[in-house]
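Check my protein:
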Amino acid sequence: MKKSWIANGVTAANALFGGLSIMCSINGEFYLAATFILLATVADALDGRVARALKTAGPFGVELDSLCDNISFGIAAGALIYSYQLQSLGTYGLIPCALLGAFCSFRLARFNVMVSDVHGYFQGLPCPTVGVLISSYILSGVKIWDWLALICVLGLGILMVSEVHYPDNKGASADQLHLPALLGCLLFVIICIFLQPSTWAAAICVAYVIFGMINTWLNRRKKKMRRARKMRKGMDL
């Protein structure tokens, strides 16, 4: 058996779990559907490591990984949150959940073509984060207002295709990580756990989402201030 089949098999397990999640969502088995998405996340985290360990990494695995990610973190996650909560809103609830798969496709395609240009951060919210956030929210047993959930799902989709920078946790970040943003998000997680311990995983995901937005804004603001200072110095000369 070729070694590449092992790594590709791990990647395919991602899609398998995503498909099982969709079926469970259709059957109303929401906790099981959420668990399958989390298992897909584990497979997604392992496939690249397995491929590198076996020295079988290649373009086929990259494309397969993107297709599997879209199934699990775009389509399956959208189907889950729609079946679990947003179905009651009719077409209004259907549209953002369906768009989640489209946004995920765009995010993955951009990642593949820009992988050699972007280093030290993710451009746009990573697709697995969306899947983990939706799954952990459902597993927490906490249910927010339906319309707020709709806005959050739409926001997650937009963030995937945005130019917001998120830490990739692969070493030194290309962006400065601002301590106030880190401390604020840490405080948010602590408060959520104190008020409702079951939300710990969802709280961490939400904190990551918020941190990326705040940190990106602070970095862009800092760059603008530097440009303004340089322009003033140039005018003084």
User: Anything to note?
Assistant: Residues 3-163 form a domain with the Four Helix Bundle (Hemerythrin (Met), subunit A) fold (CATH 1.20.120.1760). Residues 62 and 143 are 36 Å apart (CA to CA). The chain has a mean pLDDT of 90. The two ends are 70 Å apart (CA to CA).
